[in-house]
Amino acid sequence: MTATTTSPATTATGIDRSLPRLGQGFVWQDLHVGQRMRTFRRTITETDLVQFIGVTGMLEAIFIEDGYEGAAMPGRPVPGALTYTLIEGFILQTMIQGTGLAMLELHQKILAPVQVGDTIEALVEVTAIHPTSRHGRAVVTSRIDVHNQRGAMVMTYTATRLLAGRD
């Protein structure tokens, strides 16, 4: 029987902490102004709408009543907040997972309606990076343009976040 040795980076659970982590987001040093990325696509379902309005309390007639007679358009519109949170979910899961420290500021414009059955995706562009004086962090600003399956821009927003850096 051979004894095993552990490296200084190995924890009591046997996981070597020096190995790269799958799904780890970007530290600010890995980004540059003008860098562009796109998110995955996501088709919004009736279940997404029902669960979202149930959790948030957005029980407005246009969202809860199919065929609401006072609606400005046919179909099943979804709250702009649902569109925003789905895109932010993609960004969280990929770009800032484990490195995003805080959302500092958000400016948003909703340009066109999104309905159940629409497929959305976003283009993310890094527009500014400002390193801070504390712990290698930086304030990173991005413009996020959300498009539907027809290529129409349905939302645009600018997000300013605090991101971790390398020590």
UniProtKB/TrEMBL annotation:
Gene source species: Pseudacidovorax intermedius
Name listed for the protein in its UniProt record: Acyl dehydratase
CDD domains: R_hydratase_like (cd03441)
